[in-house]
Write a structure and sequence with these properties.
The protein is of the alpha/beta class. The protein is built from 9 helices and 9 strands. The structure holds adenosine-5-diphosphoribose (APR).
């Protein structure tokens, strides 16, 4: 790793009043959670794109729920890693800090970050397909296909599936954070899923300094600095 690059990023971070961070599954890899498009990303024979859709849920809700129950169980035993911890410290040091995550694992909140936009929702809430009530749900005793306590309709995970829109409040908040930041740090995402895949370009067009941290750089634009390696190894080096 080029220490000049690390020094430059550290200096940019230290002098920035507004920092926005975008994370993907790679930041949780060191916690033992498989990424979607990496090794271990398949569940049974399915890819995420095949299960995380409204059509899959309509046709085979039991299979989709079984996948979510499996992920919830797996993730409930995992804890934040050093990369998550660094972002907590960064938030305390930065006057304007926004953490946009595509992850639904809840590890950023568990680590202690406050200003988090969970762009793709969370595994730890359900939403009723009938009355749309959103409820926090951390138990592991749910039936295979849980139903709403109020209207008895089927519950679904409170996540954003392929083909569904992002909650407008979360989208607006993300776009604002991309526009106003001086440093935009992208960690552990393959940058193939929209709209998050375009956030770096937006931040750049508004003058932000773009830094990517990834074992295999994947940003669609050329960042100012690309740090190749594991998030849990690199992020701790970025703190002064
Ligand atoms: N440190 C940093 N980066 C890593 C690490 C690590 N230890 N391990 C893997 N990566 C990188 C990979 O190189 C890859 O670029 O993390 C990225 C993970 O990519 P994906 O599995 O595609 O995850 P993500 O980009 O978060 O996926 C976006 O797709 O399936 C949907 O909704 C789901 O939120 C998810 C979205």
């Amino acid at each position: 790793m080029d220490t000049h690059q690390i020094d430059l990023v550290r200096e940019k971070i230290e002098n920035a009043a507004f920092i926005t961070v975008l994370t993907g599954a790679g930041i949780s890899a060191e916690s033992g959670i498989p990424t979607f498009r990496g090794e271990g990303g398949l569940w049974k024979q399915f890819k995420a794109e095949e299960l995380a859709t409204p059509e899959a849920f309509r046709d085979t809700p039991g299979i989709v729920w079984e996948w979510y129950h499996w992920r919830r169980e797996l993730i409930s035993k995992k804890i934040p890693n050093r990369a998550h911890d660094v972002l907590v410290i960064l938030e305390t040091k930065t006057p304007g800090f926004t953490l946009i995550t595509q992850n639904v694992d809840g590890l950023h909140a568990l680590a202690g970050n406050q200003n988090i936009i969970e762009l793709h929702g969370t595994l730890w809430k359900t939403r009723c397909t009938g009355c749309h009530r959103v409820v926090e749900e951390r138990s592991f005793t749910m039936p295979l296909i849980p139903t709403c306590g109020v209207c008895k309709m089927m519950l679904r995970p409170h996540v954003v599936w392929f083909g569904e829109g992002i909650d407008s409040f979360n989208l607006e908040g993300s776009l604002k954070a991309c526009r106003e930041c001086e440093v935009f740090l992208v960690v552990g995402t393959s940058s193939v899923v929209q709209p998050a895949a375009s956030f770096a370009a937006l931040a750049r067009s508004e003058g932000a300094f773009i830094v990517e941290v990834n074992v295999t750089p994947a940003l669609q634009i050329r960042p100012n600095i690309s740090l190749t390696g594991k998030a849990a190894d690199i992020l701790p080096q970025l703190l002064a």
